[in-house]
Amino acid sequence: MIIKFKILFICFLITNVMFAQDSTFMRKQKPVKKERLADKIYFGGNVGLQFGTVTFLDFSPLIGYRIDNKFSVGTGITYQYYQYRDQYYNFKTNVYGGRIFTRYLFTDYLFGHVEYEYLNLEAFDFRRRRVDVGSLMAGAGYIQRFSERAGMVAMLLYNFTESVYTPYTNPIFRIGFVVGL
User: Fold this and answer.
1) CB-count burial class (<10 Å; 0-12, 13-18, 19+) for 126
2) 53-110, pLDDT tens digit by residue?
3) Distance separating alpha carbons of residues 72 and 181, to the nearest angstrom
4) Fewer Cβ atoms within 10 A, N terminus or C terminus of the chain?
5) Residue 114: which of 97, 133, 139 has the closest Cα?
């Protein structure tokens, strides 16, 4: 009788252990879908407008490539129009250039950003001339997602190579949009 009880008890334990297993072992595993190149590319940038005594227009699109789920690299162009006009003075200029950047996602919403931007602009010194300005910037950003693949991006950057001709003052705050995350 004790032997039958032991056999029943062992069968009971084996049955419970089998049913307690994760059901993913019972289901057929889905094959891992290989990402296409188009799935790794994202687009975005920012547009800025200001009107009045100072008129400022900024158009800065970008394109990025996700190397993996956390790390991406990209490039972008920048065009800015600046005009200062009052009763005594009227100054107009165009700023243009480009940038390369890297981003690392710490979470789904927070990321680190490093970029090098190269701009050509008109100098504000005694004679009118154009100068080239390189800026190495780094900082952090936040993504407010609208969907799985789109969102609004806010970044706070610091320019480590600020000069007399740099068009920004530290810290630099940017807001833009990204599609294809």
Assistant:
1) exposed
2) 888 889 999 999 999 989 999 999 999 998 888 888 888 889 999 999 999 999 989 9
3) 10
4) N
5) 139
Strand, helix or coil for residue 144: strand
Residues 178 and 142: their CA atoms lie apart, in Å, by 12
Contact between 174 and 46 (Cβ < 8 Å): yes
Give the separation between CA 12 and CA 9, rounded to whole angstroms.
5
The angle at the Cα of 47, spanning 130 to 49, to the nearest 5 degrees, equals 80
Amino acid at 90: N
CA angle 171, 177, 181 (to 5 degrees): 110
Cis peptide before 171 (omega within 30 of 0): yes
Tokens coding 96: 């243009």
Contact 148, 127 (CB under 8 A): no
